[in-house]
Description:
Layout: H1 5-102, H2 105-122
Amino acid sequence: MRADPEGWREKIRGATSDLIARLAWEDIQTVRPYLAQVEEKLSVTYSELAESLDRANLTISELGRAESEVLEAQNANRILDGMLAAANEKIELQAREIKAMRSTVAWRLSVLLKRVPSLLRRQ
């Protein structure tokens, strides 16, 4: 190095140029095609992710509609249960009233009086 400083610098520059050229060639031969493949896969993955997100949003929307329909059905069931309970109470009340009416003397007499004409016709 001390004997030929200019030659040594030229060798270093030449080796550096060769190294840069080799790195550029490797970049062109290997790295860039690999980068293109990765970008293509990334594009496909991004598209799939966007589709999945759309499907998820659609599913969430459908789930919200289904949930509101379930709530409406539950409200309708509560209303119907109330109406059914009221109707059952009314039926039970009328059944008790009918039973009470049939146990009266007036009812028994009216039943007998209704049978009298048919009994007279038979004789």
